[in-house]
Design brief:
213 residues; alpha/beta; Rossmann fold; five-stranded parallel beta sheet; globular; binds adenosine-5'-triphosphate; binds magnesium ion
Amino acid sequence: MAPGRFITLEGGEGTGKSTLAAGLEEALGRRDVKVERTREPGGTPGAEEIRKLLVEGTADRWQPISEALLLYAARHDHVERHIKPALAAGRWVISDRFFDSTTAYQGAAGGVDAQTLATLRQLVLGDFAPDLTLILDLDPEAGLTRAGSRGTGEARFESKGLAFHQRLRQGFLDITKAEPERCVVIDAGQPPETVLADALAAIETRLGGRNER
Ligand SMILES: Nc1ncnc2c1ncn2[C@@H]1O[C@H](COP(=O)(O)OP(=O)(O)OP(=O)(O)O)[C@@H](O)[C@H]1O
Ligand SMILES: [Mg+2]
């Protein structure tokens, strides 16, 4: 069986990742693509436990390097026990966040050395990477306003202040500049249906939108 495709959705708080993930699952499902939607941190029972340690509590609960180690522990479990088996079974996996979030949050915004994070990624994942990454770009003030209405209690990163979120936005744009063949930036200030249409167009262009193999 042909392996599935691995698509990741990235961007700051409230940029519309979860909304887009749901829209893509439905739209691709209508094209007879078998889609598996997942998220980070999380995606397996163990990784969801680690998620709680990361997203709840005060902003200074962890230093960024500790966060990066927790994230990669969770990510290893997620990749080995969930993502790789789904891809091997021919399903397309859509993950709401993946390793670019660590590069941007703990690296660009949090101050962990980029080479340290690249080494950690290589150690844990080797060359495993998404086939396509959609980066939702939005002014952080607008994103934080949107995210504030979510009300889940998972507000630890939201509470880090505007300067952090501005570095974060630039971090995601820098990733796209460094890896243009993997990453596509989408203007997340547009209405949800336009964001979805742009995402489907990028999937069509980069991966072929139908499961034709
Ligand atoms: N394109 C859009 N335009 C306006 N509002 C949007 C758009 N996309 C999502 N929203 C709304 O903004 C809020 C945040 O969206 P969503 O939860 O999808 O973002 P997210 O990137 O997953 O956020 P988080 O980083 O907090 O998980 C929701 O109330 C959602 O309905
Ligand atoms: Mg979300």
